[in-house]
Amino acid sequence: MIRIQQRRRFRPVLSVLALGGAGVGLVVASLAPAGQAVGADGSPSALTVSAAYSLVSTAVSTGAPEAGQNGESPAAAPSESPSESPSASDDPTPSEDPSATGDPAASESPSALSRTGNAVRTVSCPSVADRLTDVPAAAQAEVKRNLATIDRQIAQANQRLARIGARASNSLIRNAVLNPLRLQRSFTINRIATAVRRAGARADLRNLTSCTVQNGAGGGQSPSPSPTATGDPGDPSASPSPSDTANPTAEPTASPTGSGSASPSPSATATGGATGPSPDDFVDIRTVQPNADRPRNQQGASRGTFVSRCGRNEDGHHNSDNVIVAPGVTNGAHHVHDYVGNKDTSGFSTNDSLQAAGTTCSNGDKSTHYWPVLRLQKGKGNDADKPGGGLDGNVGQIVRPASVTLTLSGNPTSKVVGMPVFLRIITGDAKSFTNGPTNANARWTCTGFENRQLKDKYPICPRGSQVVRLLRFQSCWDGKNTDSANHRTHVAFTGADGSCPSGFQAIPALEQRITYNVPPGPGIALDSFPEQLHKPVTDHGDFINVMPEALMKQAVDCINNGRRCG
User: Fold this and answer.
1) Which end of the chain has fewer CB atoms at under 10 Å, N or C?
2) Which range has highest mean pLDDT (1-10, 30-39, 182-191, 554-563)?
3) Nearest 5°: phi and psi at 274?
4) In angstroms, how far is CA 541 from the centroid of its own chain?
5) Over residues 357-361, mean pLDDT
């Protein structure tokens, strides 16, 4: 009798698979027996969701015919996906997160992003982190964990998108990629809202679960997930947050050439089929008009500089972790970083391990500095078969910097105060190709032409001139926090006149200046998340202050007294 019940329960699923995977909502509904279809919070159980993903993945990988193909009429239209609107008062348990059970489609290797031409189509999702402007300290750890989970979900969705091939129909993309992703995001975003609510705050996280597919060639978007009768999860009772455009962290002090958005015309490179930058992403620096400008120093300005000399990663310290954004996660960045300074830095570093570690800096500065590697898109890198490298679409030979200069400078309107130990700052946006230019802060130029800067283009430098990356960090601190949930709101850029926003105080302004000896012309690519297509606008830098307090005091005195030190 039990066997008969099991067969009846799975018969609708087999019908779905005959149609090529007709929607995760139907699969979930078919898998769950009466009384077990949903948990106490109204969400599918972990076993149900895991089985649904396994079945959808199997249907895709085995090439099950899609509904309506081969002249056959579908037995049933794809149903709508399950409700994605758990209340913010719900308390999902970790087992309810589909991503916690793993994504069978994403677990295969090597990544299809490095094997198929379909990589030019990428999944684009609204940013959750940008809505989290003020997260209570009690909720920050949980929020960070779930933001890292959201990043992994998008990366896995892009791998599924690449795997189903360039000829996949909108229906197959919707059912195999977008609907499962929306379900995953539903649980994760609701968990964030719950953590914030429990800490006594509110976050408007509505309308964030649905993603679309961007067509690289034309920048269009298609398709969208199946419509549902309900809205997005989050905290429905939350009042809307201020407009994201009112962002005190924007930096108006320089105007690099470029629209601020990346060229929407990626092309396949000759190395391994991975998608790299297109010819449109390169411009001769000699055609760029001088555009770099900084505020003039006013009375009371701090005019000094302090330089740390930490080498150019001669030790070959590389990994694809990101201890700031995804602590405790291997390959949390899905691209490889160069590291200088602290020798311990990985996704599993702690404040204690960083403070106890050695450093490559000659002055004893133990701070962590890292940024995405630059590659020559010829030959085969030694990480071609590794996560963060070829398995995430980052191919070619890593170029060691010709020089790295780490400079702390003053404020045009006031003296500076010391940075707190373990202050974490991120400049730029690793996902600005899909997120838009709001937080982008890339600056590309060439030696001898550094008054001409590019934001969303790679420079073509004359022979004998080096490619230069300038990563300038926020230099205004809220005076309380060493980090924030979105890793941005505890710091801010100065305004047009060089002053800090109300409630912030000036700290030394860090600039990471990195130069490279590379052949003139196209042929370089920045490591990136797979869906960011190696666009130069995605350049970004990361910093954790582990400078000994005595050394920080020395730097502040030097800067405030107008001296050049280091």
Assistant:
1) N
2) 554-563
3) -70, 150
4) 12
5) 98
Q: Check the CA dihedral 222-227-231-232 and report its sign.
A: negative
Strand partners, 315: none
Backbone φ and ψ for 287, nearest 5 degrees, come out as -90, -5
Residue 277 CB-density burial (10 A; 0-12 exposed, 13-18 middle, 19+ buried): buried
pLDDT exceeds 90 at position 460: yes
Contacts of 533 (CB under 8 A, 6+ apart): 119, 120, 122, 216, 262, 266, 275, 276, 277, 433
Tell me what pLDDT residue 106 has: 37
User: Which strand (E) or helix (H) includes residue 492?
Assistant: strand 491-492
Give the amino acid at 117. G
Residue 282 has pLDDT above 90, yes or no: yes
pLDDT above 90 (res 411)? yes
Q: Quick one: tokens of 403?
A: 């020089």
Maximum CA extent, the chain: 88
Q: Are 186 and 90 in contact (CB under 8 A)?
A: no
DSSP lists the bridge partners of residue 544 as 368, 424
Rounded to 5 degrees, what angle do the CA atoms 396, 401, 404 make? Answer: 150
Spatial distance between the Cα atoms of 436 and 31, rounded to a whole number of angstroms: 39
Ordered by start, the domain boundaries in the chain are 2-215, 282-565
